[in-house]
């Protein structure tokens, strides 16, 4: 079995080609359109959903059958037709040019696979079965969505992201920043954010001031104490 290395790609402004115009192609459009990728559909015909995106100017449609030269301008290629032979040809062509190329539901004709993804704000979790069982990956993804990656977690991610520049400016060492963030998550900040964002911000300000005054506590490993170090209070 192939062992895959998970990565998150920055696709904003990148040219992505989806070969196919039916429901499978639409599924890939839906998973990619939030990335800011410049998506082109290559197919003699397209579904009503894809047509709506084309009419709105969110997709480009090239109305033709696939030819090998079609892949040249693209960073990523997804083969999503209902013809396995065409999908295999798309992969072989893209792979020979060192393009990221995926043939839907055909791991042998992929140099990358798409994961089952759940997103809340800036937080996202991708689950993969390495192509063995997409249905199982989807089931695990749904459990994460229901029980772990809640809207509150997404909001916390956005809030902490707003504080990253200030923390980086105040705490010069990566290890100190790592210790600080561990203590933030063990403190009352997450709970306060669900009640009052202003109070959560005030707690962050106090915590950052404490961290500047007690940098040694950020390295002691007792992060469960939050903004405290027991003997230093």
TrEMBL record:
Residue ranges occupied by any Sirohaem synthase dimerisation domain in the UniProt entry: 153-205
Pfam family for this entry, one: NAD_binding_7
Gene3D superfamilies: NAD(P)-binding Rossmann-like Domain (3.40.50.720), Sirohaem synthase, dimerisation domain (1.10.8.210), Siroheme synthase, domain 2 (3.30.160.110)
InterPro entries linked to this entry: Met8-like, NAD(P)-bd_dom_sf, Sirohaem_synt_dimer_dom_sf, Sirohaem_synthase_central, Sirohaem_synthase_dimer_dom, Sirohaem_synthase_N
GO molecular function: ferrochelatase activity; precorrin-2 dehydrogenase activity
Enzyme class, broadest EC rank: oxidoreductase
Catalysis performed (reactions): precorrin-2 + NAD(+) = sirohydrochlorin + NADH + 2 H(+)
Highest taxon of the lineage: Bacteria
Keyword Acetylation on entry: no
Enzyme Commission identifier(s): 1.3.1.76
Signal peptide: none
Pathway the protein acts in: Porphyrin-containing compound metabolism; siroheme biosynthesis; sirohydrochlorin from precorrin-2: step 1/1
Keywords, alphabetical: NAD, Oxidoreductase, Porphyrin biosynthesis
Occurrences of domain Siroheme synthase central (ranges): 120-145
Gene Ontology BP terms: siroheme biosynthetic process
Descriptive protein name: precorrin-2 dehydrogenase
Protein source organism: Fimbriimonas ginsengisoli Gsoil 348
């Amino acid at each position: 079995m192939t062992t895959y290395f998970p990565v998150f790609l920055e696709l904003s402004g990148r040219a992505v080609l989806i070969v196919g115009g039916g429901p499978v192609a639409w599924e890939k459009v839906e998973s990619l359109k939030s990335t800011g990728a410049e998506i082109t559909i290559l197919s003699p015909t397209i579904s009503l959903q894809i047509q709506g995106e084309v009419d709105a100017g969110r997709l480009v449609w090239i109305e033709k059958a696939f030819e090998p030269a079609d892949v040249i301008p693209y960073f990523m290629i997804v083969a999503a037709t209902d013809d396995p032979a065409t999908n295999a040809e798309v992969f072989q062509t893209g792979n020979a040019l060192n393009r990221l190329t995926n043939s839907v539901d055909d791991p042998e004709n992929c140099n990358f696979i798409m994961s089952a993804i759940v997103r809340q704000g800036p937080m996202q979790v991708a689950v993969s079965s390495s192509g063995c069982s997409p249905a199982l990956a989807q089931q695990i993804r749904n459990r994460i969505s229901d029980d772990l990656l809640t809207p509150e977690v997404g909001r916390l991610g956005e809030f902490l992201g707003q504080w990253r520049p200030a923390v980086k400016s105040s705490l010069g060492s990566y290890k100190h920043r790592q210790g600080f963030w561990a203590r933030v998550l063990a403190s009352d900040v997450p709970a306060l954010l669900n009640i009052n964002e202003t109070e959560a911000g005030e707690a962050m300000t106090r915590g950052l001031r404490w961290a500047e005054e007690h940098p040694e506590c950020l390295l002691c490993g007792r992060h469960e104490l939050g903004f405290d170090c027991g003997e230093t209070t």
